[in-house]
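Standup notes
- HV: blocked on the assembly model, inputs below
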Amino acid sequence: MSDESLDLIERQVTDFIRRIVLTEKTYSNLDRSAYILLRQLSTYGPAGVKTLAQDLHLDISTVSRQASVLVNKKYVEKIPNPDDRRAYYYQITDVGSHELEENKQKRFDRLSSILEDWSDEDKKRFGELLKKYNDTVNEKLNP
Amino acid sequence: MSDESLDLIERQVTDFIRRIVLTEKTYSNLDRSAYILLRQLSTYGPAGVKTLAQDLHLDISTVSRQASVLVNKKYVEKIPNPDDRRAYYYQITDVGSHELEENKQKRFDRLSSILEDWSDEDKKRFGELLKKYNDTVNEKLNP
DNA sequence: CTATATATTTGTATTATACAACTATATGGA
DNA sequence: TCCATATAGTTGTATAATACAAATATATAG
């Protein structure tokens, strides 16, 4: 059985990614990486670069640099870990939270305008299936 | 009505993209950009950089560089346009087609293993919705 | 026949990423 | 207790994908 659906997904995914990555630059003042890192800190609370790197599936050095950019912008604070003087916690600031919310809203608005003609059913299903895909990949990677 | 589905989609999409972009490096010997360009030439036939850039939503210079990488690898041939001596056609070679097919198969296999436990219905729907999303964006951009 | 438009390439810059080398601190075993 | 090794994080270096601007060569319209 040569699964037709797989073929369709495979083809659509490449377009999907390119489209999103390219277009979001034009409407977001926070770049992807910063947005995702901020969202992570906002959702799961303060963490060090090692944990963040694991959770975001990035190299520690990558997160270290991204975090220091956010520190410079005062979006996060770098707090020494009192129990381990090698380690730090990055914690989102009020300014950072505000910036995150503003960005989230912009992304939301844009998505909303793209999907304005979709049925509620389709929107719901699309979200569910994306989540299902991500969950499936997570399970496969960390069984 | 603050659409919950939008919120879910917005959140899932960022993870989705990162996951795919990062993991595909480990199993593909052709990088994203090369793969997409080759696939374009294979699907729609020979074209010049201007056309390709439009179709792929990239800058002409970007395509120019990507194309020349493929030329060096003998995956595509650069053919002067007989009607316009400024212009060229890039045409996929047999080697390129072979490479493309091999890569497509790898991507397919990987996707297949990720989605092995999904129902046919879900796979079908996921592909359809991704396509619907891409089509919607295309319509919005080029009405 | 010249001025402008067009197809493409090349120079330069930016962003996101990884790997390797390094620093500072923690920890476990003799 | 002290040293060897492990760990948290940063910094140096490299690569890939991208865009914008400048340059080149050719086409086209008045």
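- HV (later): unblocked. Chain B has one domain: 31-141. Chain B touches chain A through 53 residues (CB under 8 Å).
- Next: hand off to the docking folks.
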